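Following up on my earlier thread - several people asked me to post the actual chain instead of describing it. Fair enough. Here it is, all 90 residues.
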Amino acid sequence: MTDTAAVNDNAPLLDTDGLGIDDALNGALTGALADPRLEDVIGAAVLVATAFRLRDEDALILTLRRLTDAVDALEEAATAEFDECRAACG
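Reply from S.P.:
Thanks for posting it. Predicted structure:
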């Protein structure tokens, strides 16, 4: 039995064909979504929501800690990138 609505893992990260987004913005969005730190945040957020829905307090606490760590890493990377850009610009 084949499911035509199955998930395609080889699909592009962001399908912008019907959105009217130009190529420069499309490249920026695709690049941002490919950041593994952002993937960590999204994955942790999904796990938090799942633990909450399952009413699993221990899992919720664990996944909230992971989400906090993932957001901290993302913020540190953004701050470092901003500092590099500011140093390069003078």
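The mean pLDDT is 83. That should answer part of your original question.
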